[in-house]
Protein 1
Amino acid sequence: MIFKGKANLLVRITKRGHVRPLPKYFKFDYNGHYETDDPRLIKRLKAKFAVANKYKCKKCEYETFDRTDLMRHYKIHREIKE
Ligand SMILES: [Zn+2]
């Protein structure tokens, strides 16, 4: 699952557990996204951060987090058609 925070935001993780402890920190990337598959982290992050919506092109494999990007992308498909 991908979460949306602030670009390069460093987040400290408290109560990391004793068996397979969670990492001390994690960082959102320069786009403000952080991806994790750990159900323990997902549960916590859901309470604090928004889930990032991924937009998928209906005509190819293209994916983006930005709706404007997707619109721009669809334009390429239209231009190819003409
Ligand atoms: Zn496409």
Protein 2
Amino acid sequence: MKTYHLNINNKAVRVEAEADTPMLWVIRDYVHLKGTKFGCGMGLCGACTIHLDGQPVRSCQTPVSSVKATGKITTIEGISANIEHVVQKAWIEEQVPQCGYCQSGQIMSAVALLNTNADPTDEDIDNYMAGNICRCGTYQRIRSAIHLAAARMKSESGSREKNLKQSSH
Ligand code: FES
Ligand code: FES
């Protein structure tokens, strides 16, 4: 056992764990955040997706010892404070989830996609989201929700720019 100092959702967290403990179990069992799901445990389904320094990673394949003390971990519970909230709203509006099990991983990947590509095509979405499996087959609604979130983000940043221009006159 070793002590690890982590930053999870902008909170300092100290855990005692074996070096090879996957972040999935650190998050769920040590930190008690249950939104990140265990699917395959082999890096194949995406249910356990979290962000490490803004990049989507499979937490079942990320040993705690590989995360630097300066690394910023974000889970589904940590994305609501800023722009990503738009993605969750779009998910609700498009009624994406069926059983819901894969959806936190889907949202984490969608947020990462929109952070790098503000206006993805269907092909971009399919390529980027290919590692997130949904056994209920909600792919069509996932696509629609990502397009909706992208449109909202675009119109929000347009109004922000307009307000900035008006306040500078
Ligand atoms: S549980 Fe991690 S990829 Fe499936
Ligand atoms: S909503 Fe059931 S697995 Fe995706």
